[in-house]
Amino acid sequence: MKKSICSPLLVLAGICLALSVGLGAMLKPPVRSGFLPGTDTPVLTSSGDDAYTLVILADESVPMNRLSPLVQMARHSGGTTHILRQTDDLEPVRQFADRSESDILLFTYGRSWENALPLLEKSDRFASTVILSPAGSYEPEGLSIRTPVMLLGTSSDQAPTSQRLAEIYNRLSGEKIVPNGLSYTSQSGNFRLRIVSASLDAYQTFSDDTLRAISDWYDGSAGIRMGGPGSSSLLRPASWVLGIGGLLLLLTALYRLLSEELLDVGYSLLPLEVTAPARYSLFKALSWLPALVLLVLPALALLLLPLPGLTSIPALFCGYFGCLGLVSLLLIRLRKMPGVTGSLAFSPIKPSLQRSLIGLGALTAVLLLVLMLHQSGLYTLHFSAGKLPVFLLCGIAAALGSAGWLYDAMLLDQCKHRLPMRLCLGILPFLPYAALGFLSIPAYGFTGFYTVILLAGALIVDLLLAQLLRLILGTVWVPAAVSGVLMGIFAAFAAL
User: Fold this and answer.
1) How far apart are CA 238 and CA 287, in angstroms?
2) Contact between 214 and 226 (Cβ < 8 Å)
């Protein structure tokens, strides 16, 4: 046991996780709660040398972690940052600007631009403004704005993003440009439209191209240089890769450890026996066909009676995974699984304290990493009561999928295939979902593709944890329930 725990795999996992957490801590700028000077408006402040003031307007729909790169850039160049999360009434911001003795830069993200433009019309104390990815249906009409304003977005995501930016720019500047789907720059008077081929809309503030465009605009229009993004643009994805990779290594190492320990305990699927490995392997390779057929019914039901808050990609993901597991469970229960005899009965064992602690530690590691990735900006968890039905639906589907997958994994163990064959048989049923990632690009842009990738990554971690808990607890259904809860949370509440 001691030799296994000190194995290189576990050591490497620990190093990766430690580096991931350390990098995540480095990327979080010091921000304190307070009030906008001279007003009773709550703000989050990062103090600098008062060379200038950066006012960020970002409503609650914008995750705080996506503002961190801007705060870091301002601190490194001697600026003080004030972040307002309630942006419906910006009169206090005007009062602050009119009294301020330092230059003020304005940055808006999300829906806050709708109130920012009338603010710019009322006051000319703002040296320069950047509007990033404006949301909402607001149509600026008849505004007289003297402050330099740059509208900034990306061409790498859905086309409506750049089209919307062009419409706003045309209304403000009087131009009549038509977006071509590529990166470009257009300027008329104090207004500039900048489309960069940088990244997804959600990750723009982590992109070198976007951050340099912001810095260059403030420098050219107001003579205030914020500097570049520095190493943070590389450290952030590095923290994501190290965290996910470290967790996968940890779960894999613990699974191997417990598999070796329980090899001779007599713990197995005794009531189920693979009598014809070739027949069962062929079914496993083609199991996606009946799963797709089974998926048609719930897909049509949700199409005719859409569930509020349920988005297409997570619904298809959990639905297909649930149907895949349901096919296996039904065939085993009905004693119709090709090449297999026996029923669903399972022989549990009493877990030892040591194995229980390993399982609890693994679950804790998963939860901590989920929280760390949320804090660092890979995705954002938005919990709301309105999405509870989505959580239950996706969670139940994922639990069925995990249960079926766990039984299939134990049946494959009996086939005694070599590792490459085992990996192929495990991956083949998920190929239709992989195809969904590429099919989603025309409809949902690269946001859809990355959503598919994130869900697939979450599933890998989820199934490794379920395998580990199955070894510890000696049952399929508790690990499947835990898996369903975690996947349900991710599918219902996680967003790019």
Assistant:
1) 36
2) yes
pLDDT in tens, 152-162: 988 765 555 77
Global pTM reads 0.84
Domain boundary residue among 177, 208, 230? 230
pLDDT in tens, 340-378: 998 776 555 566 777 778 888 888 888 888 888 887 888
What φ, ψ does residue 231 adopt, rounded to 5°?
A: -80, -10
Q: Are residues 79 and 222 in the same domain?
A: yes
Q: Domain check: are 173 and 40 in the same one?
A: yes
Domain of residue 360, residue span: 262-495
Q: Do the Cβ atoms of 50 and 44 come closer than 8 Å?
A: no
**Cα–Cα nearest to 80, from 123, 40, 32:** 32
Residues 229-240 have pLDDT tens digits of 777 778 888 888
Instruction: State how many domains the chain has.
Output: 2
d(CA 414, CA 460): 22
User: CA-based angle 39:42:111, to the nearest 5?
Assistant: 110
Residue 399's H or E segment, with its range, is: helix 388-415
What does 455-470 look like in DSSP terms, one character per residue?
HHHHHHHHHHHHHHHH
